[in-house]
Design brief:
With about 450 residues, the protein is α/β, with parallel strands linked by helices. It has nine helices and 19 strands. The strands form four sheets. It has a six-stranded mixed sheet, with helices on both faces. A six-stranded mixed sheet has the order 2-16-15-19-17-18, with no helix packed on it. A four-stranded antiparallel sheet has the order 3-9-8-5, with no helix packed on it. Helix 2 packs across helix 4. The model has no long low-confidence stretch (mean pLDDT about 95).
Length: about 450
Amino acid sequence: MANHIKIKKGLDIPLQGKASGTTADDRESALFAITPDDFPGCTWKAVVKAGDSVAHGSPLLIDKASGTITLTSPVDGTVKEIHRGERRKIEFVSVEKGVCTDKADFNTSTEREQIRTTLQASGLWAMMRQRPFDIVPEAESTPRDIFVTAFDSAPLAPAILEDSLAPYLEKGLEILKRLTDGYVYLGVRAGSDITSRVAEVYEFEGPHPAGNVGTQIAAIAPVNKGETVWTLDAETAARIGKLYTDGNLDFSTVVAVTGPEAKSPHSVRTIIGASLKTLLKGAVAGNDTRIISGNVLTGVKETADGFLRYPYRQITLIQEGEHADEFMGWASMNPRKFSVKHTFPAFLRGLTKPYDFDSRIKGGHRAMILSGEYDKVFPMDIYPEYLLKAILAGDIDKMEKLGIYEVAPEDFALPEFVDTSKNELQKIVREGLDNLRKELS
């Protein structure tokens, strides 16, 4: 029987535009891309050039420091472009789908060191994360424990595990168990029928961020100074299982096109890194639309010419709101204006009826106030305001004492949403983690 944990603090944001149960097949996408910024902690260099023929699973980029961790091509085809930004930083590598006579082969021996080598060569290693620092796991690191989450509680989030990959989850957990001397923990939604003989299964009940792996770690076995844990979602674990079951590297995924600006919210079966232009063809309701690759709390703003970003599960379409003209502005008593507090009469509708949000922050930046508002939606045993102030001050001793090793930027997404001071809390945490890692290296 699974262990049961109830998360009491949090907030489910009632956003319009949940995807229906229908899933269409993406038959038109011809261009796919990998974005290095989605894989923090590594310095990536290209090992291909425009015009090169590449096989599905062959390397496109490699980490300079380790020389072994790679990002691989999701399809057979030809390298279309290595797009560089300022100071020649690689922004993405795109591949045009085609035919390649070569095939990427991987050694599926279950010895620990060979598993490590295979995962790094296949690109699956880069889909995991290490805490502390929320980075791609270091090439030679060995985790205390590994945490796998099998559900996502973010606004309009789809199911994590695609049906075609579900049979391979148990094998993936077996392979992961060989990489640690500790436990593999599997976090599932309360009432789920997912079980495991290999992993310790924990059921989670409650509002978002119950599905965040950081919340699950804090509730099961928190990270202490000097310890390392790895995290990943169940879909990545199932991809590992499929590679070790039949030798196939599967980069397929089901993406939910969601949000109030989606004409008909639905799901699309495609391949990771697909072009948004194809995925959103005929799906955008208006011109004043923000395209977010991911959910509204942690996703990345993209253009229509952009690509699906890691973790490749969701696209959210909301209004920019630049041309909104509300009577009385912020003082409006509009019953359709959402507020966590009882500031507007909308609270009489309850917090479950869907709202049509836009991208406006509806307020100005100001000093951080120790009001306790973060604590109401932050279920971890940490004082978030004090930790954020320590990060801004660059006080490493206080950062360590206040739990910097336990957190990732996504853990502060809800506090950022309810913040009356309109601070970019996730950006603050990301910069704090990067600076701390630099100081300690």
